[in-house]
Amino acid sequence: MSSNRHSSGLRQRSSLLQRLLTLPIRHLQQAVGSLGDLWRTPFTSVMTVFVLGISLALPATLHLFVKNAEQVSEQWDSASQITLFLTLSTTDKSAKNLVKRIKLYTEVSDVHYISAEQALKEFKILSGFGQSLEYLDKNPLPATILVTPTERASQPSAANELLVKLKQEHEVDQGKLDLEWLTRLEAIAQLIEDIVIGVALLLCMSVVLIVGNTIRLAILNQKDAIAVMKLVGATDSFIQRPFLYSGVWYGIFGGILSWLAVTLLAHYLTSAISKVTDLYQSNFQLQGLSIDEALILIAVAVILGLVGSYISVRKHIRAIEPNAE
Predict the structure, then answer these.
(1) Residue 84, SS3?
(2) Model-level pTM?
(3) Beta strand 144-149 with 108-114: parallel, antiparallel or unpaired?
(4) d(Cα 44, Cα 49) in Å, to the nearest integer?
(5) pLDDT reading at 164 higher than 80
C-alpha cells in the first residue's frame, strides 16, 4: 500500500516537472505562431505597426525637445551674473577688501572688479560722448563688482538668496540680478513638460485602442476556429495566448519604428541646428535618444500592445461559445 502511494507521488512530481519544462516551450511555440499570423496578414500588420510607431514618435520627439531645451537652459543658468553697484563714497581700498570678502563666499565662483575710473573710460568709448564727458566735475559712475555664482547657486532661487546676502554688505548701494528671463524660461519649460505628458497619455490611450481593435478583428476572423478549439477542450488562457503575443509583437515593431523615426529626425535637424549655433559661436549639439531611453520607449510600446490585446481577448474570446449541435 505504501509503495503504491510512493509511486503515485513520484508520478505526480514527474508530471508537474514535465509541465514546468514544457511550459516555456509552449509559450515559445505560440509566440512564433502569432508572429506567423502577422506575417500572413501583411497589410493589416504593417498599417497597425506604422500607426503605433507614429503615435509613439510624437511624444518621444517632444521629450527630445524638452531634453535639449533643458541642456540649453543649464548653459544659460551657469552664465548668470550678479552686478553690485557700490556707493559713491566707497574708496578703492574698501572696494578691493569687499572683493576679497566676496571671494570667500562658497556660492561664488568668480569676482570681477570694475573701478569707477575704468567704468567711466569704458562708458566714454561705448557711448560716443567722450569729449562731452570731459566737462564733468566728478565721476558720476560708481565702482562695480561682477559676481559669478557657482553652478549650484546659478539657479533662480539660489541666485536670489545670494543677491540678498551680498546686498547686506555696507559698501553695496544696489544689486541687480535679471531673474525675470530665467523665471520665464523655467515656466515655459514646465509648460512644455506638461504638454508632453498630456499628449503622451492621449496617444498611449490611442495605441491601446488601435491594438485592441486590431486584435478584436483577428478574433472575429477566427471565431469558428476558436469555437472548435473550445469544443475539443481548449481553455480560454490557451486560446488567448497567441493573441496576447500578437499585441507584444505589435509593441516591439512599433517601438522600434518609433525609435528609428525619432533618430532620423534628430539626425536631420542636427545639420540645420549646427548652422545656427555656428553663427552664435555656440558649442551646442543636439542630443538624440540614449540607449536607455530607446529601450524604455520599446518597453512602453510592448506594455501598451499587451494591455490593448489583453482587454480585447478578455472580452471577445469569453463571448464566443460553441454551438450545442
Answers:
(1) strand
(2) 0.63
(3) antiparallel
(4) 9
(5) yes
Residues ≥6 apart with Cβ < 8 Å to 251: 52, 211, 298, 301, 302, 303, 304, 305, 306
Q: Where are the alpha helices (DSSP H) in the chain?
A: 2-40, 42-78, 92-103, 116-127, 130-133, 156-166, 180-221, 223-231, 236-279, 291-319
* pLDDT tens for each residue of 89-145: 888 888 888 888 988 888 888 888 888 777 767 665 555 555 555 555 566 678 888
Sequence letter at residue 148: T
The answer to whether the CB of 317 falls within 8 A of the CB of 240 is yes
Chain CA centroid to CA 151, Å = 22
Q: Is 121 exposed, middle or buried (0-12, 13-18, 19+ CB in 10 A)?
A: middle
Domains and CATH numbers, the chain: 27-75+184-319 (no CATH), 81-177 (3.30.70.3040)
More confident residue, 179 or 288: 288
The values of phi and psi at residue 83, to 5°, are -105, 125
pLDDT average, residue stretch 46-53: 88
Half-sphere exposure of 28 (CA within 13 A, CB side): 5
- Cell numbers describing residue 211: 491594438
Give the separation between CA 189 and CA 194, rounded to whole angstroms. Answer: 9
Place of cell 480560454: 236
30-35's contacts with Cβ under 8 Å and 24+ in sequence apart are 30/241, 30/242, 30/245, 31/245, 31/248, 33/242, 33/245, 34/242, 34/243, 34/245, 34/246, 34/249, 35/245, 35/249
Question: What would the DSSP string read from start to end of 34-79?
Answer: HHHHHHHSHHHHHHHHHHHHHHHHHHHHHHHHHHHHHHHHHHHHHT
DSSP 149: E
Dmax (CA) for the chain in angstroms is 125
